[in-house]
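To illustrate the input format used throughout this study, we show a single complete record. The first block contains the structure-token representation of the backbone; no residue identities are included at this stage. The design step must infer an amino acid for every position from geometry alone.
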């Protein structure tokens, strides 16, 4: 059977070299996708660990590891090609994807490959993982072989890791769509062939989803379309911590922008959701424990105050007057240790920006940029609120905050234009 690719420019993410190799393979039970970009120091470890997991737990199945690279100019692809997994009965393809640069296009190539090979189960793992173990492969894939369509990661994380997940992605997922998926943007997922086919026919592969935001898009699509979803325990995710004040502005735009875009698309769905429910969790935690790290509160507060000086007028137009008054008080605060942003104020900020993003016809992301200093203010507040708290107490805080998002959902519906 020949894999026939459409002739239009970005109607496929597969290059000719990959296409020929896929045709020669013919079929596979499992496809593991590793989207990569400038990962020369970590890619070999991820490939080797995935191969060990496949060999240890699925040696009776035919498997392919597909490294879908974004055109790295370091030695990522060379390292991937030189990683020797010949001792295992596992195929490997290393290829640059075609299409709009971004993780979405990388995963599209993986999905197209899995569909052609009629793979029963598909998984994706980030290329910069330091803490992946062979058991991650089992914990992600086993639920797919047992009837689940979408498996999201359930990590052990330090209380200050994953601030965008904890304070925006997680509470909005459970509030808008009714499922308490703890890591909707985790990056390490399991999927059924049925879900992969559905992803591929979605008309998103020449949009911003192909550039960024693919994780939250995949999760939201699976939820809205009613697929069977569970979570898999994976232990700590270590891939180099990021200081939210320094490194996460781009990720913030990607995740929050895509989330807000999806709110427009699925407005009728989320307006009907009244409550949330738990999502089953399977497996045993595998790998190392998360390591504590510190965040610089002074940098987060300075980012917030610089934003106030630049965007005060914008915030006045967007925020609820009572919340703007709180923001002004925080700006004038002299003592960093007393910097606390009330949870309800944060929830209303997220909702007000969702509505402003929705009602802005042009340059939506310029509006979103003005929210980033407020997010840094939220991070500064977390440092004070959770600094002396245990992991369990921090998790209680994040769940209480998510409940507050749910309790204020009528506020969102009321202001939504």
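Output of the design step:
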């Amino acid at each position: 059977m020949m894999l026939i690719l459409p002739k239009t420019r970005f109607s496929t993410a597969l290059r000719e070299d990959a296409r020929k190799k896929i045709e020669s393979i013919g079929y596979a039970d499992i496809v593991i996708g590793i989207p990569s970009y400038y990962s020369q120091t970590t890619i070999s470890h991820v490939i080797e660990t995935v191969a060990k997991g496949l060999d240890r737990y699925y040696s009776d199945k035919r498997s392919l590891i597909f490294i879908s690279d974004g055109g790295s100019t370091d030695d990522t692809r060379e390292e991937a090609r030189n990683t020797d997994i010949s001792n295992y009965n596992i195929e490997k393809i290393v290829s640059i994807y075609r299409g709009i640069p971004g993780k979405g296009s990388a995963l599209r190539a993986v999905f197209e490959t899995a569909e052609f090979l009629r793979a029963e189960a598909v998984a994706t793992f980030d290329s910069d993982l330091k803490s992946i173990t062979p058991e991650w492969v089992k914990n992600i894939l086993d639920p797919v072989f047992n009837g689940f369509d979408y498996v999201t990661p359930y990590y052990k994380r330090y209380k200050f890791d994953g601030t965008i997940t904890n304070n925006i992605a997680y509470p909005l997922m459970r509030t808008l769509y009714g499922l308490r998926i703890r890591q909707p943007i985790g990056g390490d997922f399991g999927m059924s062939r049925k879900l992969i086919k559905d992803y591929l026919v979605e008309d998103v592969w020449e949009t911003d989803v192909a550039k960024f935001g693919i994780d939250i898009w995949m999760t939201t699509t699976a939820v809205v379309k009613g697929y069977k979803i569970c979570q898999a325990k994976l232990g700590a995710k270590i891939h180099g911590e990021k200081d939210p004040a320094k490194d996460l502005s781009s990720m913030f735009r990607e995740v929050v922008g895509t989330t807000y875009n999806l709110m427009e698309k699925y407005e009728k769905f989320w307006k009907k959701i009244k409550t949330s429910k738990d999502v089953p969790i399977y497996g045993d935690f595998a790998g190392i424990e998360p390591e504590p790290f510190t965040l610089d509160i002074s940098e987060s507060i300075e980012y917030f105050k610089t934003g106030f000086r630049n965007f005060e007028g914008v915030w006045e137009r967007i925020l609820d007057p009572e919340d703007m008054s709180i923001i002004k008080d925080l700006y004038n605060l002299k003592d960093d240790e007393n910097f606390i942003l009330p949870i309800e104020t944060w929830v209303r900020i997220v909702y007000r920006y969702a509505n402003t993003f929705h009602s802005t016809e042009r340059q939506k992301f310029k509006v979103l940029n003005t929210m980033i200093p407020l997010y840094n203010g939220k991070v500064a507040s977390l440092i004070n609120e959770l600094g002396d708290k245990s992991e369990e107490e921090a998790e209680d805080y994040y769940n209480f905050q998510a409940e507050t998002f749910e309790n204020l959902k009528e506020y969102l519906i009321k202001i939504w234009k």
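Structural context for interpreting the output: Residues 5-9, 240-246 have pLDDT under 50 and may be disordered. Residues 297-415 form one domain.
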